[in-house]
Each structure stands twice: as C-alpha cells, then as structure tokens.
Amino acid sequence: MEHKTIFLDFIGKSSKSKILEALLIGREEEYTLNDIVRATSVNRQKAYKILNDMVKKNMIVPSNKVKNIQFYKLSTGKEEIKLLIHFFDKLIEYN
C-alpha cells in the first residue's frame, strides 16, 4: 500500500521523501527493508541505500533484529526528527 499525503506534494515525490513519509506516518512502528519497499514502491536497492544513509544521519535507528532481518525505527528522540514530526502533523492538519 503506497502512502499519499500532502507532504509529498509539498516536498516532492523523491524516493527518500516517500520513505520519510512512511516512517512519519507510522512513527511508533518498526519496519524492515521489505516493509519500506512495500509501503513506498521504492526499489529494494535504492531503499537499502537510503535507509543506510538515514541511519548514518541518525534519522532512523536499527531496533530489533530477528534472525537476519533488521528492523528500523524513526529516531523520535532526536530534536530534528521532533521538528519534522511537528511539521508533518501541521501540514496534514492544514489540509
């Protein structure tokens, strides 16, 4: 299921913004690479690269690992992410 909100209309429909939107919508959830690919329709290789970049920037954190499957979660404690969440919620509320 591909998410679609005013957020993408506002900031653009890049692969990274699609992944960020999915993570903002489900900010309390944990996601695998496959979950992200299914939610955003971003190809697996590109999603993997974006997730790794987001981990390096501490936008997301690796959370649980089950066998060889890594789960990721939005870094909701980071100040910049809190601001993004606030912006996202206000933009959705505005629409």
Strand content: 5-15%
Shape: globular
Major sheet: arrangement of strands: 1-2
Tell me the major beta sheet.
Answer: 2 strands, antiparallel
Report the structural category: alpha+beta
* Rg computed from alpha carbons, rounded to a whole number of angstroms: 13 Å
N-to-C series of helices and strands: HHHHEEH
Q: What's the architecture in CATH terms?
A: Orthogonal Bundle
Give the rounded overall mean pLDDT: 91
Total domain modules: 1
Number of strands: 2
According to CATH, the fold-level topology is Arc Repressor Mutant, subunit A
Q: Helix and strand layout, with pairings?
A:
Elements: H1 6-11, H2 15-25, H3 33-40, H4 44-56, E1 60-66, E2 69-74, H5 79-94
Antiparallel strand pairs: 1-2
Helix pairs in contact: 2-3, 3-4
Summarize the structure.
The protein has 95 residues and is α+β, with helices and mostly antiparallel strands. 57% of the residues lie in helices and 14% in strands.
Would you kindly provide a written description of the structure presented here, covering whatever features stand out?
The protein is of the alpha+beta class and 95 residues long. The protein has one domain: Arc Repressor Mutant, subunit A, CATH 1.10.10. The chain has 5 helices and 2 strands, in the order ααααββα. Strands 1-2 form a two-stranded antiparallel sheet. Strand 1 (60-66) and strand 2 form a beta hairpin. Helix 3 crosses helix 4 (44-56). The longest helix is centred in the C-terminal third of the chain and has 16 residues, at 79-94. The chain is globular and about 40 Å long. The mean pLDDT is 91.
